[in-house]
Write a structure and sequence with these properties.
Distance between the termini: 31 Å
Helix content: 55-70%
Largest sheet: 2 strands, antiparallel
Number of domains: 2
Strand content: 5-15%
Order of helices and strands: HEEH
Number of strands: 2
Radius of gyration: 17 Å
Structural class: mainly alpha
Shape: extended
Strand order of the largest sheet: 1-2
């Protein structure tokens, strides 16, 4: 049972850190979400937004950071 408690605590801390990172990114990187490859379409009664370029950029940066972290801790 204590293993489950540890996993839940780690997940809670990780989600809090991710939330803080998102808040900081939105505040200090206002262009994030408005890149040239982000698709937006507005009709009469609806709006569709798909941030393709933002998703790709965040994915590439996260992959690089995680690879660096994994290589540092593997040694």
């Amino acid at each position: 049972m204590s293993d489950l408690a540890r996993v839940l605590i780690v997940m809670g801390v990780a989600m809090t850190l991710i939330g803080l990172l998102i808040l900081l990114a939105l505040r200090y990187l206002p262009w994030l979400g408005n890149l040239p490859g982000d698709f937006s379409y507005e009709g009469e009664n609806y709006r569709f937004y798909f941030p393709l370029a933002t998703i790709l950029l965040v994915s590439i940066v996260a992959t690089i950071i995680l690879n660096i972290i994994i290589r540092v801790f593997r040694r």
